[in-house]
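Onboarding guide, step 5: your first structure request.
Type a short instruction followed by the sequence, for example:

Predict the 3D structure of this protein.
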Amino acid sequence: MRIRGAWFVAVGLVVTVVTAGLLVMSRAGADTSRCAAFQRASAARADLVTGTGPDVLVIGDSYSVGLGTSAEASWPTRLPGRVHVAGFSGSGFSPQASECGAVAFADRAPRPLDAVDPDLVVVEGGLNDFDQPETAIRSGFERLMVQLGGRSVLVVGPVAAPSRADDVRAVDRLLARLARSWGVGYVSMLGADLPYLDDDLHLTPAGHEQFGDLVADALPAARRTGW
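The system replies with structure tokens like these:
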């Protein structure tokens, strides 16, 4: 009986370990699938260039990609100039804002900067940095500014999305301070009254229009003379 009992215990342990392994694999697979979907959306958004005039590069998160609406209705299409977008859903200034690897703003900036050499860079984000340490946000911001190399820059802070409104206020204050210290433009979006989808996080199509118009109105703060 002891042998039989030991056998059942051993089988039980094996089943438990295998089940746990399958659960981990399932979660990893779901994460991989989600990241792959984000990557496809990012590439599709990068392929869409709108407008005419001086080149403008937008580096951002799911808002710039158009998650919840469409690339054609995303807020960067409201900006003047020939607008290029380097967006990735879930990303932010800090490396750990996303679980999809090296997709922080500073990680993704070199490639579009080389391809476009923009007259103006609009950096939109901070909403996904809501739970990240200040040191990580600061480091990511500084890395990005070094890469932008003295270009005209406008940093657009996080909105007060209902699901994260209390958490992003500190992020907004930090980004405002960092922008001042680097001598770049900053626009806070905390006071913007925007419509959100049912997830209380992403903007409706009308919200994208309003957001884009607010950013367009703030562009003079970042323009170089003659831009």
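Each response can be followed by summary notes, for example: Residues 13 and 19 are 10 Å apart (CA to CA).
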